[in-house]
Amino acid sequence: MKDSTREAIDGVLGVDRLVHEPARLAILTVLSQAEYAEFGFLELACRLSKGNLSSHLSKLEAGGLVSIEKRFVGKRPQTRAAITPAGREALQRYRKQLAALLGAATEQNGGETP
Amino acid sequence: MKDSTREAIDGVLGVDRLVHEPARLAILTVLSQAEYAEFGFLELACRLSKGNLSSHLSKLEAGGLVSIEKRFVGKRPQTRAAITPAGREALQRYRKQLAALLGAATEQNGGETP
DNA sequence: GCAAACTAGTTTGCCGCGCAAACCTTATGC
DNA sequence: GCATAAGGTTTGCGCGGCAAACTAGTTTGC
Q1: What is the mean pLDDT of residues A97-114?
Q2: Of residues B94, B92, B81, B90, the one with CA closest to residue B31
Q3: Is the pLDDT of residue B75 over 60?
Q4: What Å distances lie between residue A106 and B35, B38, B71, B88, B95, CA to CA?
Q5: Minimal Cβ distance to B33: which of A33, A98, A107
Q6: Portion of chain B with pLDDT greater than 70, in percent
Q7: CATH code (residue B20)
Q8: Per-residue pLDDT tens for A48-61?
């Protein structure tokens, strides 16, 4: 087994579950491309129901990966989310781990290679 | 929001959960690089306990992504796993989806881009 | 002015899943 | 003969994602 494969596997086994969840990965990806985003925008951008978006945002906030700001616009409440520096780092680390796995190309050896 | 980002998000939201799980991703990655692998080898290669390896292999088999062959070597049982064509396709598809996400580079725009 | 509908989220409940631990069976040492 | 190891499978539990229900306030229709 190649060293690069060994590292790729160790990487994927060590991914942050908070980041690894598809819905949250979508949220973090969107947030990484803008300074902030409103709840309604994320709802559309990530194709999530309000309920699920709300709970995922709460978890990301609890993990310190995003910050949530609530305010009023006119008489309506509005929630804004932004990625934190820790969130950026976590996403970066995740991307490296996944990139390593994708780099583990599909090479054919005979049976296993102990 | 850029088209490539839109596609990346749709991709990640649509990943096959059977493949997305880190332990199974490790198993599939190892299997994709050899014709087959023995249980004991996978245990070491994927750093999984026998119990967890067993249950993950069962799920992969149930999903048709790997095939399991049981036989006896002397008087001891031995289990061999191999990735199936469907498994290769699923892994391939997964890789494309993740690659799209990694490709969604971290570009800074001002706030959101509706 | 009041009900119905809409906006903007949060909370609740279920069920499916990953993981650790217990268990089983057949060898191999001591 | 009794512990230990190889080669797994099964069981139990606790967390977690998702859909659905709920809350709270606002706007619209009549």
Answers
A1: 71
A2: B81
A3: yes
A4: 11, 19, 27, 9, 11
A5: A107
A6: 91
A7: 1.10.10.10
A8: 999 999 999 999 99
Q: Domain for residue B49, yes or no?
A: yes
DSSP state of B45: H
> Predicted confidence band at B103 (pLDDT cuts at 50, 70, 90)?
confident
The reply to whether residue A1 touches residue B45, judged by beta carbons under 8 angstroms, is yes
Model confidence, pTM? 0.91
Q: Is residue A94 part of a domain?
A: yes
* pLDDT tens figures, B11-55: 999 999 999 999 999 999 999 999 999 999 999 999 999 999 999
B27, B60 in Cβ contact below 8 A?
yes
Q: Which domain holds residue B62?
A: 3-103
Q: Is residue A106 part of a domain?
A: no
B112 located within any domain: no
Where residue A10 falls (left for φ over 0; alpha for ψ -120 to 50; beta otherwise) is alpha
Confidence at residue A104, expressed as pLDDT on a 0 to 100 scale: 80
Domain count, chain A: 1
Q: Is the CB of A75 under 7 A from strand D?
A: yes
- In chain A, positions 11-70, which contact chain B (CB-CB < 8 Å)? 12-13, 15, 20, 22-23, 25-26, 29-30, 32-38, 41, 45-47
- C-beta neighbour count of B108 within 10 angstroms: 8
Residues 6+ positions from B90 with CB-CB distance below 8 Å: B16, B18, B19, B28, B65
